[in-house]
Design goal:
The protein is mostly helical. It has a single domain, classed as Tetracycline Repressor, domain 2 (Orthogonal Bundle). The longest helix is centred in the middle third of the chain and has 25 residues.
Length: 200
């Protein structure tokens, strides 16, 4: 367990860096900027993190941990599968607020940062659990049985590429709108055909 999670200075660094990374990406944000915004010294920063990349990895780890815990709690709720999907979409909306295409680009296109491998590993773990839940939903008749679960996995892996596609970027006012468009478009078609007229 991280011994620093209750340290106010550590938490200030995490929150400040999260906000800056989400707005500007990782490469464009300096340690000096993080320290200034968090009102801490560089010495304090280096007491917790050896560099900016390790800080970014910590923030990404926290994001995945929180998202997965939220997902697991949601899937145990005593509500319909369709309601669970609606809540997932709302949770995704909250989780992607203020996220920039620069952050996605930094993770997916800059191999020097070394973040893509970890991002893909955690995404795969998350996807594996979702696939198990969707397979059960198909068995129970809560979801279209004719949709291939392998396609869901493939589509999920391509979503990030769509987010930083220049043509799609031009169509939307911000990255969150694009993410939610992709998410809604995908989930809209997974319910049994007689229920496809229901709007989220």
């Amino acid at each position: 367990m991280n011994q620093n999670i209750h340290n106010p200075k550590y938490l200030d660094i995490i929150k400040t860096a999260h906000d800056l990374f989400w707005k500007h990406g990782i490469k464009r944000v300096s340690i000096e900027e993080i320290c200034k915004e968090a009102n801490i010294s560089k010495m304090t920063f280096y007491r917790f993190f050896p560099n900016k990349i390790e800080l970014a990895k910590t923030i990404i780890k926290n994001m995945f941990d929180e998202s997965f815990a939220l997902y697991q709690n949601l899937m145990t709720e005593n509500i319909s599968f369709e309601e669970k999907i609606k809540k997932q979409i709302l949770a995704k909306f909250e989780g992607t607020k203020n996220i920039s295409s620069e952050l996605i680009k930094d993770i997916y296109t800059d191999k020097k940062l070394g973040l893509l491998e970890y991002w893909e590993k955690r995404t795969a773990e998350f996807t594996d659990q979702v696939i198990k839940d969707f397979a059960l939903a198909q068995e129970m008749g809560w979801m279209r049985k004719d949709i291939k679960l392998e396609f869901i996995m493939y589509f999920n892996s391509k979503m990030a590429e769509m987010v930083y596609d220049p043509q799609l970027e031009k169509m939307y006012g911000n990255t969150q709108d694009l993410i939610m468009e992709i998410t809604n478009l995908f989930f809209y078609g997974i319910f049994p055909k007689e229920r496809n007229g229901n709007e989220l």
